Amino acid sequence: MPPTWHCSANSSPRQPLGGMSQSQQASRQAVDYGTDQLLADIAEYVVAYDLQSPDAVKNARYSLFDALGCALLALNVPEARTLLGPVVPGAHGGAHSVHVPGTSFALDPVCAAFSTGALVSWLDYNDCWLGAEW
């Protein structure tokens, strides 16, 4: 199991959780799951990036909390809730399920990403809706 990375405004560089040092992680053999090269390059850039700005971490936290707040408030809107859940009723994500914040759904990663994104975006798209007065 790969380590989970932890980064905070007070920690630099990032430290892996789970008992593996960065050198141990680097020495592990990469497993090729048929991922295209562009996706592998992006993932490598993200993992290897040395974040040194406490302000960047602080702003990322603010953005995360803002997104979660929007998602949780959007759960009050019946139309937004109709977009949530599995594509096939009763289906779930199995061993790789992902929870949708504020709900009891544990979905496959694609459906969970869509559901979470729909909730986060719901208020952004509806707070500037031009009504009949236009």
List the helices and strands and how they pair.
Layout lengths: L4 E2 L8 E2 L5 H6 L9 H12 L5 H21 L3 H4 L16 E2 L6 E2 L1 H18 L8
Antiparallel strand pairs: 1-2, 3-4
* Number of DSSP E strands: 4
Percent helix: 40-55%
Main sheet characteristics:
2 strands, antiparallel
Oligomer classification: single chain
Strand content: 5-15%
Order the strands across the largest sheet as they lie in space. Answer: 1-2
Structure description:
The chain folds into 2 domains: 44 residues, no CATH class; 73 residues, no CATH class. The protein contains 5 helices and 4 strands. A two-stranded antiparallel sheet has the order 1-2. Strands 3-4 form a two-stranded antiparallel ribbon. A hairpin with an 8-residue loop joins strand 1 and strand 2. Helix 3 crosses helix 5. The N terminus is likely disordered.
